[in-house]
Design brief:
2 domains; alpha/beta; TIM Barrel; Immunoglobulin-like; eight-stranded parallel β-barrel
């Protein structure tokens, strides 16, 4: 694993042994956090956004995956496109279900039944198409827990009447996949700000809408931060996830025993204690201001411009809106998605593809097509993906990727866009669009980064001999007579003499 900082003297001492504990501060986390091999080797996971929003009328207008917030009308200060979206959605809700004073978000819960949900079948499908871990959402902004929770609004007592986290985990382990969870709880007091006008003290709904907490100032309320901490720790203790993803933000360091860094360090400490001082879990979130040696950065809907010193996660959505909605469109085409995935892996990234299941628990066909496309790629090219690491250079080509969250690439790649990985002594070169002419790779010219002589080049998924030339300008691979069918990205293995 590449580390971007060296520590000296006492700061260089790492936590070792089953009884050692990481202190609850970011410096200690940065010194001791170690991404486990299963994550870096596995490369591909599936995220699932599924819950109450999944069961709302599939023909609803765009809600930005925030139906529960927008159904109550625009928030103060909301303007432009966001205002228009919210107004259209709230008008739809009033017409379709009734005004929120008569039909609130709580009345949508019984619509979520999961009557056709088959977690084992879904996990098997994900595994067959390349996934090595899954990460269902345990609680989204709507404060509804998808597990057997001490919070009364949960999927065991209401809706499906099933412990979905337990069933996801059992299915994952049966098929040899790692199991993660994602919580978005910290947003909920603000999320339901406009629902507050309809709530009465002492009701069950009072708890769903987080009425005990200030919708604008909850981040500074010790009571809320303690509530968040206890709900998160309950997930960790009950479900022992291999990965814990927190949709930032989280309680500030000043809150001590209920701060984010306290929860995160205790999550890792718990793992170290159970595994003789070896870290086997992954901690991820989106806070770009924290030293990225201290956790695994969730670069949601973004991309990397270069190889990152720490493993990171490219999290994207194939549903077009995180939660299922029939009219949602994914602006990223399947070929671009596959190319983006290879680009991320070449830069020390791990791929997490979100699917939005229907309320009945089934996977829509248009989303399944994206997962299948990754599977088709992996079946041919997996040897250069699983267990690989970045090479000296991520690649070359005219398409430049934005560095940072949001703004992920939707543009088509060309055959000039090349990405590299390495595994052992073998270099892999991936052409991010099916080539129609000879492939010219300037980075592999004689006297360059690839030292020594090229011995053999093989086209992955083909037994056709590959003809190539190499000089001081470039390595040129002659266009093969045929390419593996159905491949959006074409891979070559390159070995030395």
């Amino acid at each position: 694993m590449i580390k971007k900082k060296l520590f000296i003297a006492a700061a260089a001492v790492l936590v070792t042994g089953a009884e050692a504990q990481i202190e609850a501060n970011w410096e200690a986390m940065a010194r001791n956090y170690r991404v486990p091999d299963w994550f870096v080797d596995g490369k591909i996971g599936v995220w699932t956004h599924w819950g109450v929003p999944s069961a709302i009328d599939e023909n609803r207008p765009s809600d930005g995956s925030h139906y529960g917030r927008r159904m109550y009308g625009p928030n103060e200060g909301e303007s432009g496109r966001q205002y228009d979206m919210t107004k259209k959605l709230s008008d739809f809700h009033a017409e379709r279900y009734g005004p929120p004073s008569e039909f609130g978000y709580e009345d949508l819960v019984p619509l979520f039944k999961a009557e056709r949900w088959d977690p084992e079948g879904l996990v098997q499908f994900f595994k067959e198409n390349g996934a090595r871990f899954i990460m269902p959402v345990a609680c989204h902004h709507d404060n509804f827990d998808m597990y057997d929770s001490s919070h009364p609004w949960n999927s065991v007592d209401m809706g499906p009447k099933r412990d979905t986290l337990r069933e996801w985990k059992d299915a994952a382990y049966k098929h040899g996949l790692k199991f993660g969870v994602s919580t978005h709880l910290y947003w909920s007091p603000r999320f339901f700000n406009n629902a507050r006008q309809y709530q009465k003290p002492g009701t069950l709904e009072w708890q769903l809408f987080s009425m005990d907490y200030d919708p604008k100032g909850y981040a500074n309320q010790e009571s809320w931060n303690r509530h968040w901490y206890e709900r998160c720790w309950e997930i960790i203790e009950k479900y022992d996830p291999d990965m814990f993803n927190n949709d930032s933000p989280y309680p500030a360091d000043k809150f001590g025993d209920v701060s984010g860094v306290k929860l995160f360090s205790e999550y890792i400490n718990r793992d170290l204690k159970e595994n003789e001082g070896k870290q086997t879990t992954v901690l991820s979130f989106k806070n770009g201001s924290v030293d990225r040696s201290a956790f695994t950065y969730n670069l949601e809907r973004g991309s990397a411009g270069e190889i990152k010193p720490e493993p990171w996660m490219w999290a994207t959505d194939v549903s077009g809106g995180w939660y299922y909605r029939k009219g949602a469109k994914n602006r990223m085409s399947i070929p671009v998605m596959v190319g983006n995935a290879v680009d991320a892996i070449s830069k020390n990234g791990v791929v997490m593809l979100n699917v939005g299941l229907r309320g009945d628990g089934t996977l829509p066909e248009n989303q399944a097509a994206y997962i299948t496309a990754i599977g088709d790629f992996i079946r041919v090219n997996g040897v250069g993906i699983y267990g690989s690491r970045p090479w000296k250079l991520f690649g070359e080509g005219p398409l430049k990727m934005k560095d940072g969250r949001q703004g992920e690439n939707h543009r088509d790649f060309s055959q000039e866009d090349i990405r590299f990985t390495q595994k052992g002594e073998v270099l892999y070169a991936f052409v991010l669009a099916p080539p129609t002419k000879d492939i010219v790779i300037g980075a592999l010219a004689k006297g360059g980064l690839f030292e020594g002589e090229v011995g053999e080049i093989a086209l992955l998924g083909s037994e056709e001999p590959v003809v190539f030339e190499r000089n001081a300008k470039a390595l040129t691979i002659k266009l093969p007579k045929s390419l593996p069918q159905g491949q959006h990205v074409v891979g070559f293995s390159i070995t030395k003499k």
